[in-house]
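Thread title: Can someone regenerate the structure for this chain?

I was given the following input by a collaborator and told the matching structure tokens would be attached. They weren't. Posting the sequence so someone can regenerate them.
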Amino acid sequence: MILSIQRISKSYNTNTTKALDNVSIDLTAGVHALLCLKYVKKTVALIFIVLLVGCTSTDIREDSYIEGKDFQFMYDSQQDTLMAESKDGYYFFSGLFLYYVNKASMSPIILCNRPNCMHEEEVDSEKIPYCNAFVPRPNYLTVYEENIYMLSQLSPRDLELIKMSLDGTNRKSIFSYVTGVSTGILHRGIYYYATLSWDSNQKSVYSLNSVNINKLHVKPKVLHTGTFNNGTFNALNCRGNNLFFDEVELNETGLIQKNYRLDLLENKLHSIIEDKKDMLLGGKVIFKDKIHYSLWEVYSNGAPIRSEFWVSDLNGNNISSDKDTKLKSPLVDLEYFYLNDLDAAYSGIPQSAMGLTILDSNFNELDFVKLGQFKSSTVLPGGSKHLFVQVEVEDKFQVYYVNKDEFGSHNVQLKLLFEIDADKRFPAVIMDIPKK
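Best answer:
Regenerated them for you:
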């Protein structure tokens, strides 16, 4: 067998239940019937069916965030910053290695229990893939119902969805692809993903699909098929019973965008955010049942000339001007709205003064986190306890965190969570990956 050594670079494709309504069954009217034994089995069976139907219906139709079941949008940055949250901790990738952080201690450990494993310190290219924390080209990470799910990309056409226990054991591939995947997310047991390939005429062939992770033997369902000659689907985002996504194409005239909302209950597709001549969608977040988005007019080199900020309902209607965002990038979690300063060259803000403005649900300013000390950073709003900032400083990769209970104190502190030499994140490895 011929083995080849390949350096895996970081330039890979990256691109919520109302509480169950109280089911009360009045048995008073059926007392006499229950005294008759021949009706007992039928009555019990009927009660059981009512309970089952009530549970299932409530679970499917709930339109608010369900912890442990829904797409973790607060960790989605549309970049190579993979992070997820469980009840007790956080998971994140440092390059090709998976780490775990317990919420109580906030001390990261690499998710490998292999004896004598050197993990990212290993220099033998043949041994690196045997580290239990090693994942070839990860481009998706989430936690769903007490399990970790990851998408690993061995090659542009060789991808697999991996499931494993929260402690890093019981790792197995549960779904693989016969064509390339541009993006994918897991929400309420359904994996939504976009495929992308090219035909003999070099025209892109792409579709939005879904598969039930508990019924992987059933053929995936095609939800929508793309129409652009050189297009793709991206920016998948699930909220309650809605799936939002974009369709984009880059051609000789520039960038073309379409924005959609798919009603998952009625299976109806709606076009949202109407195109505006010579302006591009610069960013879009969903907060408290509203869509906040920006439209940018740009120079040919991509630098913005001017911007407009708008807010609408989830259907893209009732549009009004959103003047408070200014030249900032909006981010959201379940409770807070954040405004992240854009590049200083575009915003006019000195580098040293740049940072993250924290607003409450009524858009009142609570606090500010300085980020100007970093040339670049990625903010992950996170869950109820912590916010995270990932940065690359010289030859180091660092992860910082903020305690959200400090919001409003005007003394928010960035605390270093993790640091590693940048060259240890993407080692040269033998691409004959062992099955785990």
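The CA atoms of residues 392 and 398 lie 6 Å apart.
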